Amino acid sequence: MTMExxxxxxxxxxxxxxxxxxxxxxxxxxxxxxxxxxxxGIGVFSLPHLWSDCFHKKKCGKKKRVRVYMDGCFDLMHYGxxxxxxxxxALGDELVVGVVSDEEIIANKGPPVLSMEERLALVxxxxxxxxxxxxxxxxxxxxxxxxxFNEHKIDYIIHGDDPCLLPDGTDAYALAKKVGRxxxxxxxxxxxxxxxxxxxxxxxxxxxxxxxxxxASLPRDPLRAIQSKDAHLSQFLPTSxxxxxxxxxxxxxxxxxxxxxxxxxxxxxxGHVEILKKARQLGDFLLVGIYTDQIVRFSTLSEFDALExxxxxxxxxxxxxxxxxxLACRYVxxxxxxxxxxxxxxxxxxxxxxxxxxxxxxxxxESPKSITTTSVAQRIIANHxxxxxxxxxxxxxxxxxxxxxxxxxxx
Length: 411
Prior knowledge:
Elements: H1 2-7, H2 9-17, H3 19-31, H4 47-59, E1 67-72, H5 79-90, E2 94-100, H6 102-108, H7 116-124, E3 131-136, H8 142-150, E4 156-160, H9 174-178, E5 182-185, H10 193-214, H11 222-230, H12 240-246, E6 258-263, H13 270-280, E7 285-291, H14 293-297, H15 319-327, E8 334-339, H16 354-358, H17 373-382, H18 384-404
């Protein structure tokens, strides 16, 4: 049934857009003695050329929009997820995203870090996403595939070039491939949710080792702690092309009200999305400052004063990773990569917003969500055994992927 849809798409398009014309054509064919079996796929006479020319001339003014579907767990949302959805959107006009249910993730991968509500907020906050389907299945079943095609009018199902296998070893997208409605994009290398969980767990182990050795809550040598943390950081470096792909490439218009907000935005989460949404509603153009890694670690840039801001094991994500995650948010117009701690002409003020307050342009926004970067990390640490087991399993498939990896067109 689905295969016939693909091979005779012009017929179904005709039924949808021009039912009266199509019905009249069928009746005329019957009166003339022309077999209507053609419309089931058997070509006779020159009727298809007549129909095709006439139909396409009428339809040229109203081109059917291509709708594509991509699903995922989107747990610990990162710039790799964002880039995948950006590539998917480029394959069509409208992007529908399925967010896999908590139950399906537990059954196929292990416990998710973020709840369904938090993951929905993250996906909905991406600039390339048009619609979201909650509680999507992990595998594309025949029933769900028909629902995508019929209810959501999906033309193609998208996934990355990394394999997505079910517990029994079968391909989760086998049916979509079989009916010819599957398209593939290039996976963004250098980051994954598994990798991020690994960074947090490694930091936990290093912290515990320092506590055991020094019998103190903080390591005695901050420089050594930083070097240890750097060993767990991704070595991903964005190109100017990637930044342009994520950017709106537009500046503020004449007389636009520009709103500035800054922060670390580490482990980009639902709370970040909500606060950026509120900030954007205050004006016409939202400019976001992203602190450097050094500022996130320390309250000042002086030589290893004290770990009084966030601690030696922050940030989990480095500056370039955090910048892309923020830039992918639909409420953000532009970012400053490596913004200063103080919004002032002179450095060294005790209140980083002293100048803004004196000018009467400062406003404090409270996030409606209680989630924070620290609380996300604490969830992983509190359930570290389950996540270590999940990561060990995922590491095997990751290794196999890179060993068998073939080039896939895309970016």
